[in-house]
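Suppose you are handed only these lines of text.
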Amino acid sequence: MKLTAYGKTDVGLLRSNNEDAFFLDEQLGLFIVADGMGGHAAGEIASKMAIDLLREKLKSEVKKESTAKELLPALSDAINYANRSIAQAAAENPAWSGMGTTLTVLLIHAQQALIGHVGDSRLYRWSNEKLVQLSDDHTLINEQICRGIISNQEAEQSNLRNILLQAVGIGEELDICQKKIPIEQGDRFLLCSDGLTNMLADEKISDILSNHSLPEMACEELIAQALSAGGKDNVTAVLITVKNEK
Ligand code: CA
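From them, the structure of the protein bound to calcium ion can be written out as follows.
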């Protein structure tokens, strides 16, 4: 199986700095999006730290003979390690106090997609012309929808949309969303920050993927459309296509 990927981040039209970060390694099968938060540019530190720590940890763990059974706990260990390390860095540097980051990780290994996720960045799978969100949003608003307290429609209008229930680096124990799904040739995956999904509805994202089969073209178009819809936040997208090895 061959993976082709492309990623892009943009500061957006209203913000002065970009607290999003992403990483992609087609050989390793590792793809990450992180959306940092915290004052004095600490959000940038948190998202970059999370990605560096994860990349380092997983690079040594992922071997050809590794099984999903080994890698899934390795993935959550790496996320917990990033959580503790960022919390410690924040404790040692008052300017970084309260910094944290979302973290959405896709590890493709031996025909499986292994997922580790905390926060409100998202992972979607595009399969048979259909877009399905694989990650849960760890937001107050999503919890209220799940409990039937508010409707999807009310949620769209709510000003509580960006309240996170958990983030990497805050130090509290994480409830990591983990999944393992078999992949098929032709599958495509999209990792993105909320700067994309707050600007573009799922239907719009689906249309763009349908119209652009190459990761680079689709990714560029997603970012361009998020900007033309207002670009209120930093926006990041990473697209991966799974193909047969030839
Ligand atoms: Ca954001």
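What can we learn from it? The chain has a mean pLDDT of 94. The helical segments are 42-61, 68-92, 140-146, 152-157, 194-197, 202-211, 215-228.
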